[in-house]
Structures are given as structure tokens and as C-alpha cells.
Amino acid sequence: MSATLIAQIIDGKEASARLKDAVAAAVADLKAKHNIVPGLATVLVGEDPASQVYVASKNKTAHALGMNSRQITLPADAPEADVLALIQKLNADPDVHGILVQLPVPKHIDSFKVITTTSPSKDVDGLHPESAGRLVAGGEALVPCTPMGCVMMAKDVLGDLSGLHAVVVGRSNLVGKPVASLLLNENCTVTIAHSRTKDLAAVCRTADILVAAVGRKEMIRGDWIKPGATVIDVGINRETQADGKNKLFGDVHFAEASQVAKFITPVPGGVGLMTVACLMVNTLKACVTQNGITNVVVPMRLPPRK
Ligand code: NDP
To answer: 3-state class of 132 per DSSP?
Structure first.
């Protein structure tokens, strides 16, 4: 008997298009009411091909939504002091509301210094310790984009997340910890699992919402998933195929999981697309906050489907 797909796919392309439309409308509203255009500055150090693609896509999306965006590229051997001086210059530039230094930076540059030099008010990646602290302690914060996208997608299909058990596999500052904090803020009961977790499969099986942010191809198997669960797969694992082409895999074994879960994000075509859209949300939010504007609504959740 051939396997039948029972899970409903959470389509990142469709969801991110809805969010981007809402951001574009808010950007137009901001321009009409205040004649202000949000400005994003992306900084790329070196020529890593994947980073080049990511940064180009961020700039292109910003322009498409009516924002200003500029990319500054420094050579791979740029001294750390030059990178930090550039960030300070952008911190002081009133036309730049959001600063994104594409990570990872070359090894001779301390990424923590890069993150902490960025003004928290312009920290659209949400990685500054002040942003992280605000997320945990409560209060307005620029939240890391991928976690924001994960929670928006879960809320889009489930509505109220209150009381659901969320298991987050992975505890990085970029994904695992902030997604856990956001789910806690949504009144989920949250378990954070990691490489030292005992009987990970059993822990995963208790999840109403399972977020996989590990970086290991298809590690999470179908029998790790509670029937009817919502699975958000953050993993991006590249593998070169026999024909020389790169193929992307998630952290979840999609073919197996989609026969058990109720909702699931695919890889590619899932969380990754929401990440860029959420960066646009953060750039708009940073601009509105820096200008003390209260009559433009920043979309903080996915608008309903038309
Ligand atoms: P990190 O490598 O920083 O963190 C991975 C986490 O997974 C760690 O907490 C680690 O645990 C845990 N882990 C590793 N192996 C195991 C295991 N065998 N069992 C349980 N836990 C394990 O990765 P990131 O958080 O930065 O990224 C995670 C994935 O998400 C990657 O595939 C990345 O490419 C992808 N990603 C996708 C984005 C998107 O836009 N879709 C954006 C950002 C990341 P420990 O702490 O104990 O070492």
C-alpha cells in the first residue's frame, strides 16, 4: 500500500506573501501619513555564496515592499575594527532604521562584538543581549526573525496556542531559545531539548507543537511525532546529489512525519521564506519605534487568508 499524506502543509510561500502584503500596506501608510520610508542596511563581509544569496534576497524584498535598502560589502579580510566602525556609522545614520550583519562573519571577527556594537533599536536580527533580555523579561523587543516566523505559522493554523505542550529541539541563541521564549509568551508549556536530552524520541512524542532546530538531516522520524501534532521544521541541511546539484533537507523526516502530523512545514518552502518576511516586519517596527509613531500598525501576526 502506498503511503498517503495526511498532514496539511503549512505553505511558507503563501504565508510569507500574506505577511509581505501586510508590511507593504503599512509601509505605504507610513509614507502617506509621515513621509518616512523604512531603511535597511545589510552588511556582508566576504563572498560566501550562500550569504550572498541571503543578503540579495533581503535587499530585493525590502525594495519590493517599498522600503529603502542598501548593501555594504566588505572584503573577507576586512579588519574587525573596520566592521565595527561601519556598524557605528550606520547606528548614527537617521535614514537607517535596521542593521543586519550577515552571519557567520569570517573567523578573525568576533561575532559577539558585531552583535553588541549594533544599536539595540536597530537590531533587526534580534540577537543583541538587550533584545534577548527584553524577550525573556517581557516588554517590547525586536525578536529574531526565524523564531517569529515559526510562531506566526503555528498561530495561523492553530489559533490560540494557550496550554499546548511545545517541544523545541535545539537551544541556540538564534533559534531554539527565542522560539521557546515566544511560545512561553503564547502560554504554551515549553520543553527545550538538546544534544544531552535523554530519550529525545519520547520527549518529542509528548509535543502538541514540535519545533525542530537542530541542523541534522531528517533526524526526527515519524514515530517521534504525536498523532495530530503541528511540526515546524527549521532545519536547512544541504546535500550535494549525484547530479552535482544541491538538495535541501529538513531536520524532520518529512515523508514519515507527514503521515502522523496534522500540520507540517516543508523544507524547502516553509520556515525559510517566513524568515525574510519577518525581517521586513522588524525593519518597519524599528522605523516606527525610532520615530515614535503610534498610528501605523505593524503586522505582528499573519493576516487571515482571503
Ligand atoms: P546550532 O548548531 O546553533 O544549534 C543546534 C542545536 O541543536 C543545539 O542546541 C544542539 O544541542 C542541538 N542538537 C544538535 N545535535 C542534536 C541531537 N543529536 N539531538 C538533539 N539536539 C541536538 O544551529 P541553529 O539553531 O543556528 O540552526 C538550527 C538549524 O536551523 C540549522 O539547520 C540551520 O541551518 C537552520 N536555520 C534555518 C533558518 C531558516 O530561516 N529556516 C534560520 C536559522 C537556522 P547542544 O546545544 O546541546 O549542542
So the answer is: helix
